[in-house]
């Protein structure tokens, strides 16, 4: 593979790190007080209650609604963990799959609002490319430790 300035593996590392910065920004810009007081989950519950798919409505009611505070912490700190993991290249395949899972859950919840899907589409695409191109081979703790 011919590239300009960096090697192919280094460009993939840039892509991985950029995705990590995107997740970190998603974590940073959240109003944590509102999220931890239930604001984020309340918003999601309102969306889920009107969802066209019964499994989404009932699944949200079974998994998320009974534990809104816990789920708020899971979402917020998952974004932080994904960002840090991708930037540092630590447990990178797990971070990429975890990010895909969060993107998929958001896609499913927001299926009726395509205006909301652009960011998640790009993040999912980058995750797939970074995962299958093994973007942890360069500039990562995984490579330094000989993992994966």
Plain-language structure description:
The chain has eight helices and no strands. By secondary structure, it is mostly helical. It is elongated. The two termini are 22 Å apart. The mean pLDDT is 92.
> Any low-confidence stretches, pLDDT <50, length ≥5?
none
How many E-type strands?
0
The general outline is elongated
The chain-level structural class is mainly alpha
Which range does the strand content fall in?
Answer: under 5%
Biggest sheet character:
none
Q: What are the SSEs and their pairings?
A:
Blueprint: H1 8-28, H2 32-36, H3 39-49, H4 54-63, H5 68-88, H6 92-109, H7 117-132, H8 141-145
Helix pairs in contact: 1-5, 1-7, 5-6, 6-7
In short:
By secondary structure, the protein is mainly alpha-helical.
Features of the shown structure:
148 residues; mainly alpha
